[in-house]
Design a protein that fits this description.
single chain, alpha/beta, UDP N-Acetylglucosamine Acyltransferase, domain 1, 2 domains, 19-stranded parallel β-sheet, elongated
Length: about 500
């Protein structure tokens, strides 16, 4: 097999920061948009370039971040940043993991999740075509607050980068920002980092100081404007997180629309980066397609529906429902107001109807649980119909037990199946039955007790209430009718 890696390219991803402006116990780079943490999007974009090595620098909540990184990109090398703060120090320590490598180093920030592989590929190509020592990605934005400014000399070359908090009023007025994405030639990068000081307002080693040092050494510093300025912006707080999520979702929705998916209201439809949809799927308003959900051709989802890690078959319909880790068969019908918990499997042409909750349940082809039911730890055969209010009582206060219902079973309304219990093929159960014992195939199961009426109970035990007054009035009226009938007789 041909090795398609770029042997002259290494990637360093900076993921050491705490992200104080997020005001969160969760590290900033682990906050999610589109079903992936911020660092996951950056790892994906970097991986598409097929670099020789990928290095991720961590510090804050080191174990949590490293676990996510290695889970998403097992080939990545995790490097710890020491006590010296700053992006310059982070890259300097990452270089230790590049021993024996000689080429270009692409530096990415783990909080810039919207950059696409094509943009990064173009940046590397520009760097190499112009034989630059450093090439940075820039963007011109309407509100540059919080971002480092790109300062150019009279000829238009990049002179230096100044952080927002260190910039003068004049420098803060510059609209061209540094996206925090760079390509360096390794040898001059290592040399210039050794000369970077902490003489600034924050006492940090800024990677951006390498720009000025390269210029001072007479090296070429290039800049490649991002084709989409919004995609070059980082996430520093919850406002920017929401903005990034919206921008990513708009991109994902548009991609699926162009692939043949009908999205009736893109503004209220959210599709995770990891979801997969087929042609002729229809998504109605207020629909969430989350995680690794897969939806087959012709299915209609929504309105007001959330699917997470689900499989939906061809031409199925899911309306006003919530489902997680569920499998919905072809031409099945779910909802409205159904709750499918993990382990639910609904067969072809099956139905889970209004106000039905299912959990760890297999419902066979053509079988229906139409309304007002709880079906947990249950196996249901084909062509079964459960009446309204069916409950599989699966928990005995200590353990969970299973209910097995055979093929072609029809139950009456308001049945309780007390597990463990087995209902044979073709059996029927009467209304209100509480089924505690196995039912043989073809049998009718009833739990019948004679009805007992205690006359005058309300008037004797609830005197003075509206019910007692109504009962007394009705009793008197009935006695008057009875008396008239006796006289006529």
């Amino acid at each position: 097999m041909t090795d398609t890696r770029d042997a002259a390219l290494a990637v360093v991803i900076l993921a050491a920061g705490q992200g104080r402006r997020m005001h969160s116990a969760l590290p900033k780079v682990l906050h999610e948009i589109g079903g992936l943490p911020l660092v996951g999007h950056v790892l994906g974009a970097a991986g598409a370039l097929q670099p020789a090595r990928t290095v991720v620098v961590v510090r804050h909540e080191r174990e949590r971040v490293a676990a996510v990184v290695t889970g998403l990109a097992p080939e990545a090398i995790v490097v710890d940043q020491d006590e010296v703060p700053g992006t310059g120090r982070a890259v300097q320590q990452a270089l230790d993991a590049l021993d024996g490598f000689d080429g270009d180093v692409l530096v990415l920030s783990a909080d810039v999740p919207l950059l696409e592989p094509a943009t990064l590929t173009a940046l590397v190509r520009t760097h190499r075509d112009r034989t630059a020592s450093v090439t940075l990605l820039s963007a011109t934005v309407a509100d540059p607050a919080g971002y480092g400014r790109v300062l150019r000399d009279a000829s238009g070359d990049v002179e230096r980068i100044v952080e927002h908090r260190d910039a003068t009023d004049h420098e803060q007025a510059v609209a061209e920002i540094n996206a925090g994405v760079y390509v360096f030639r390794l040898a001059p990068l290592a040399a210039h980092l050794a000369a970077v000081t902490r003489d600034n307002a924050q006492g940090e080693m800024y990677l951006t100081d390498v720009i000025a040092l390269a210029r001072r050494a007479g090296e070429r510093v290039a800049a490649a404007p991002a084709p989409d300025a919004e995609a070059a912006l980082g996430v520093n707080d919850r406002v920017q997180l929401a903005q990034a999520a919206r921008a990513l979702n708009d991109r994902i929705v548009r991609r699926w629309q162009l692939a043949g998916v009908t999205v009736q209201d893109p503004a209220s439809t959210w599709i995770d980066h990891t979801a997969v949809l087929a042609e002729d799927v229809t998504l109605l308003p207020n629909t969430l397609v989350l995680r690794a959900t897969e939806i087959a051709r012709g299915a209609t989802i929504g309105p007001d529906t959330s699917l997470s890690d689900c499989e939906v078959g061809e031409d199925a319909v899911v309306r006003r429902s919530d489902a997680t880790l569920a499998v919905i068969g072809a031409r099945a019908n779910v909802g409205p107001f159904a709750y499918l918990r993990p382990g639910t499997r609904l067969g072809e042409h099956g139905k889970i109807g209004t106000f039905v909750e299912t959990k760890n349940a297999t419902i066979g082809d053509g079988s229906k649980v139409p309304h007002l039911s709880y079906i947990g730890d249950t196996e249901i055969g084909v062509n079964v119909n459960l009446g309204a209010g069916a409950i599989t009582a699966n928990y005995d206060d200590i353990d969970k037990h299973r209910t097995v219902i055979g093929d072609e079973v029809h139950s009456g309304s308001h049945n309780v199946f007390v597990a463990p219990v087995r209902i044979g093929d073709g059996a029927k159960t009467g209304a209100g039955a509480v089924i505690r014992k196995d039912v043989p195939p073809g049998a009718l199961a009833l739990s019948v007790a004679p009805q007992r009426n205690i006359e005058g109970w309300v008037e004797n035990n609830r005197p003075g209430t509206g019910a007692a007054t109504a009962a007394a009035r009705a009793r008197a009226a009935q006695e008057a009718v009875d008396g008239t009938q006796r006289q006529d007789g």
